[in-house]
Amino acid sequence: MLQKRRECPLDSLVSLKGSRRLLCVLASFSILLQANPSLGKFPRDNRQLTSCSAFTSLEEIEALFTSYERDHIGLAQTFVVGTSVQNRDIFGLRLSAAPDTETPEPEIRILGGIHGDECMSVELVLEIADYLIQSYGEEQFATELLDGTELLLIPSLNPDGYAALKAYRFNANGVDLNRNFHFAWVDGGPKPFSEPESRAFRDLSQDNNFVMSLSYHTVATYVNATWNYTPHHPPDEALFAAMGTAYAGVSGYDVTFGWDWYGIYGDVDDWSLGTSGTFGWTIELRDDEEMEFSVHLAGLQDFLAYAFVGVRGKVTDSVTGEPLLARMEIEPAGAPVYTDADVGDYHRILLPGHYSITAHSPGYLSQTMEDVMVGNEGHLELNFSLTPKPSESVDFAFTFNGMTLPQEIDDSFSRANYLNETVVWNALGEPDGVVYSLSPGGTVTLDMGLDGSVQDSVGTDLVIVSGSISDDPVSVQVAAEQDGPFVTVGQGDGHIEVDISESGLQSIRFVRIVDDGGGSFADRYAGYDLDGIVDVTRGSYTPPIDPEPDEGDDGDCGCHVLSHRDESDLIRILRSLFSAP
Q1: What are the residue boundaries of the structural domains of the chain, listed by start?
Q2: Burial class of residue 8, CB neighbours in 10 A (0-12, 13-18, 19+)
Q3: What digits encode the pLDDT tens for the residues 320-357?
């Protein structure tokens, strides 16, 4: 077990460069490996409590949150996320120095009880809330955190399973909520977001751009990073490694990338990173009998410090000065993040280095700032002022909404024989030859950006642009709402022109591509290779002619994102550390 807080504290990590930072992070991992030298595919401890009746009840949670709001005005605000299958409220607590005011600050989400029989996960979220409230104004960590961020805490997302006479992992429909999210979904429920609990959580998350998230579970000893669905680690691998090391601290917990432990499909963390750029983590608590709050408090302090690291700013209309909904793309890095449409603020956690940052907003010309240097301490402030596009201009897919797989990427696969490393956000924005390759028989759903953003016009309304790396046939479906109904409006391979009048809708927002199932599941370019979706209702667009992939450029799959030699070495070494034995 670890005998000291950690080898590589944040204040040291962000001040080091190149090989010194590489060695600092690796030193932390070497200590973790001494605690458990066989990081890889570990069996999950399936111990379950027969009842959560000895823990805080749902009624007590409601009363507790109500008392916080009453006794700590201007600090705590209770809310209801939604209701369960059996019509129980899902309670939430918002903590901030200004909880009822929209301010440009990072937002953090802390979740417990997505599985009803993991009772201690509920209790730990409650303990975190109580600590922050009671310590505000008394302790530096709690005070600075609530002065500088907004936290949303949800102790029990599955109240029916938690309140059952015999605690139940699933919700009242028998669905595992942590397999029901619309990312790498396979069979967790009748369809993605089939359950009222997961839909309520989705809606809350889409209304709040969380910079980071913690989801507590039991029983194990892992700090678990995304991806959970694939053996390939996310492009932000070095940053995930550093954040995980920060949380693990003195706990003796092991840091792992999810699939390296065991793969899951349709989980909340992958969905959070893939659709909104939220750095989502699963923390598997040691047991359901002892909380060990002091251990987790130390990890929280180091982990949540990352909310104050990287780049932040606002995106506004250059003419009116009004805030804009925008997608922020950072190179070299990984997932894009999004602004809050009400305030226009964005926050992106980054390690020190040089980056190119681009702001995209529907109906506006994109703006890029090159060679942005993110330093050793705090946030770099970087604001964007976007110019409206000319009236006769095309627009592009803005946000990734979800994707499904035809099967699990199970233990018969590895990084060596499952070759599809393409990432979903490759299909966003203007087609550029960098594709997302669907799984054969899988689907991908993209959001064009605003309600009714694609209006039916005469003739072609959308052009589905293929990377032309393969000739896999697909069908194209459209909908006005993310929950559908989706209507098929076209079929084909290569570039596909779509007239949305065939749907009977006057306007649409969501476009779904459904692969026909041909091709090899494990190939690098497995199914239809989606380069982008173009809205041509206000302009004309000519797709590229048979672009060919550059096999020597990993950028085609979006998987080679760190430009510094030392950080590339870090990627290589960390992958070897986390490979299954």
Answers
A1: 58-307, 310-386, 395-557
A2: buried
A3: 999 999 999 999 989 999 999 899 999 999 999 999 99
